[in-house]
Structure formats: C-alpha cells, structure tokens
Specification:
Purple Acid Phosphatase, chain A, domain 2, 39% helix, 6-stranded mixed β-sheet, 17% strand, single chain, alpha/beta, elongated, 9 helices
Length: 416
C-alpha cells in the first residue's frame, strides 16, 4: 500500500468511518454539558488527525527515519483504531438499517414513522445499540493494546503422540518444534533469550524449526545470531524455509543485495547457527539401533498468494523402506492438498505459518481465531486416520506486535 492511490483510498475509508461514527458520538453526548462535549469532540478528531499523520509518515517516509520500534507500534495502533471503528460501524449500521426498516414499515402499513422501542428501563434501542457499538470497538482496541505485553509470553505445550508403527528405539523421544521466529520483528533481545532458555530447559532429543527465520532480509538475524546459536540437541537441530524467507515482500535490490543473494544469505545463516537446513530432501535419524526418516521441504502452500517451492518428489524417494516418517513443511495447507492424498505413509507433519493470527480464544474445549476461516488446520493437533499434523502457533510475531489469546509457542512432542 505504498502507492499514493492506495494511501488515498485507505485514508478516505478512515475519514468516512470517522464521520459516520462521529454522528453516533454526538448522539450519545447530547445530554452532557457543552464544555464536556467540546472536549470529547476535540479528542475524537485529534486522534483521527494524528492517525492520518502517522499513517502518512509510515507509508511515505524512509523506514530508517523513525526508530523501528516506534514505527511498529505506530502502524499497529493505527490499524487497531481502524479495526475498532470498523467493529463499531457494524453495530451502528445495523441500527440504522433497523430504524430504516421500522420507519418504512410504519409509513407503509401504519402511517406512523415514530415507533422507537425501548430496552430495559426506558433506554431507547438506538441508544442501546450505539453504546454497545462504542463498547465493542473500545473493548477491541483496549484488548489489542493489552496484547502488546504478550508477544514474548512464551508457552510450552507438551503433547504425547501414540503410533503403532513407531520403532522401539524411538519410543519416548522428545521432539521440540519451534516455528516462525521472524527475527525482523524482535525488539527485546533479553526477552528472546528467555524464550531460548525455555527451549533449552526442555532437554529435547532433537529440535525442529519449521520456517520463517526472518521477515524479509537475512540481515535481520545479525543481532540474534548469538542467541539462536545456543540451540543444541543430542540428535541435532533441523530446519526448513517459510514463505517470508524468500524475500517476496521487499523491493530488490535492497542495500546493494539482490533477492537471490538474500536467499543464499538466509540459507547460510542456518548453517552458521549449526542447523541442518533441509531443502527438499531427507535425512535418516538413528536411535537405539532403529531408524526413521525426517523429510524437509521448501515452502509449499495450497494458497495462491504463497509460493510453491517445495518438492516432495525430491524429498520423498528413498524413504519408502523406513517404518516411520516425519515431514517438516511450513504451511499447513500442504497437508490436506498433497501430503494426505499422495503420501499416506507420512506419519507426522509439522507446520507453522498461521501464528493463530496472534489473536483468538483458547480455553479448554473451545478454540477460535479469524484465521480458521482461511486455514482449516491453524493451531494444535489434527488427525486423519493414521496421519497427524501439528501446527505450531509461532515463536515470534509479525505485523501486529502482540498476542491476544494465542500465545507464542514452544512445542514438545513425545512419541510413544
């Protein structure tokens, strides 16, 4: 949206929303003193002006003009305000439609255009819906701001997976999965180090990273190399690429680096960290005299807007003779689209990518996020016959610098 036309369209929508919602603000403020009304109106439009200025600065200035942390929070706050107003707008629009239908029915059938009903002890239905809309929008914005404090609130999720065909030598193996580090979003090295310490404290046999090491550029990892190179495990650390690792969301060349060179630099970082990057290939894991296959492919998505670099036809051959197979594939849509129909002997697929949208609700027996309307498998464990998929909720964050309901995840899987 860095084009003048895109910015104009977004600002126009913001101003139209603000103008519409302002009519509601005026309505609910009609019974307070003129001085208080003036203060509320000034604050309302003052926030709008600041939001427009902040948006223009974010879109049309050099990324280095403002500190990255400030830019991130400014943009997230503007989008939070926009989403909050959009939620309020839905309530207000429903009320206007209700009143239009009521007015039309009254005019056509009863020759009456009044008929406003009340809710509870005398409050009009319009006033009730107006306050409800303001509360919903304000509640959403407050929740999003509160979520800023959760972006490093790492949670360890322990699960046991039972397989009848698991070789005896691998019984009890602890696999630690992390995904979506997104180093370009980090702003607190100490907090990230705490997350890595939590990973090491699990004493896993093997660590598997399922893609999106960076947001866009290999240079984003520079400050965090000495943090993530601490990740060690007896059976090694293995990794794959995610959609962000290809640099598709940046204009190249950037800083004198081409897109192809940036990708090579990202690959090199995996090696410098001591991780074994699997690029459409497999390795054989050995434990207590038994062997299983670990496959890792490049990003492969069933969604058109994400790349399909993954090649199961290269990674799979040679694994047929092994009784148990684990696949690392960044995008969970790969499981339904290709893994299940074409590779039914892949026992466990590990993915990430969705982050659980960093926003949702997770309580015992209930799980919801807007991302579920885009991805059928978006967080946690999924099973189909003998095949299982686990979608990690992500270690890092991108875009919105926070988490609401869906916390950053460290997954420990024990095979039994």
């Amino acid at each position: 949206m860095r084009s003048p036309l895109g910015a104009f369209i977004f600002i126009s929508i913001m101003l139209l929303l603000d103008t519409y919602i302002f009519q509601v603000v005026k309505s609910v403020c009609q019974n307070i003193s003129p001085k208080a009304r003036t203060i509320i109106y000034v604050i309302y439009w003052g926030i709008t002006v600041l939001a427009v200025i902040g948006f223009l600065l974010f879109i049309f200035t050099d990324p280095d003009l403002l500190p990255r942390k400030l830019r991130t929070y400014v943009f997230a706050t503007i989008l939070g305000l926009f989403m909050a107003k959009l939620v309020g707008f839905i309530f207000f629009l429903l009320d206007d439609l209700r009143r239009l239908i009521q007015w039309t029915a009254g005019k056509l059938f009863y020759n009456n255009t009044e008929g406003e009903t009340s809710v509870g002890d005398g409050i009009s239905r319009s006033a009730f819906l107006s306050w409800l809309g303001l509360a919903a929008g304000g509640g959403l914005f407050t929740t999003l701001v509160y979520g800023y404090s959760n972006k490093y609130n790492y949670k360890v999720k322990n699960i046991q997976l039972a397989y009848g065909n698991l070789p005896a030598g691998f019984k009890g193996i602890k696999i630690l999965q992390i995904s979506d580090i997104h180093s370009g979003s980090f702003m607190d090295k100490k907090a990230v180090q705490h997350g890595v310490d939590m990973i090491l404290a699990q004493n896993a046999d093997i660590i598997l990273f399922t893609g999106d090491l960076v947001n866009d550029k290999a240079t984003e990892m520079k400050e965090y190399m000495d943090v993530f190179n601490q990740l060690k495990a007896p059976m090694g650390v293995y990794s794959t690429l995610g959609n962000h690792d290809y640099g598709d969301y940046v204009s190249w060349p950037n800083g004198g680096i081409t897109k192809a060179q940036n990708l090579e630099n990202v690959k090199k970082i995996h090696s410098e960290l001591g991780w074994r990057l699997l690029m459409n290939e497999h390795v054989i894991l050995k434990r207590n005299g038994d062997e299983i296959a670990l496959l890792g492919i490049e990003n492969w998505s069933a969604k058109a807007r994400f790349p399909k670099h993954g090649r199961m036809d290269l990674a799979y051959p040679g694994t047929e003779k092994y009784p148990f197979k684990i696949l690392m594939s960044h995008d969970p849509s790969h499981w339904d689209a290709q893994v299940k129909p074409d590779y039914s002997d892949i026992d466990l697929t590990l993915s990430g990518h969705t982050h659980g949208m960093q926003f949702g609700i997770e309580i015992p027996g209930f799980k919801w996020s807007p991302v579920q309307y885009m991805y059928q498998e978006w967080a946690g464990l999924y099973e189909d016959a003998k095949q299982k998929l686990y979608v990690n909720r992500g270690f890092g964050f991108i875009g919105y610098p926070g988490r609401v309901g869906i916390m950053p995840e460290i997954t420990v899987i024990e095979l039994v």
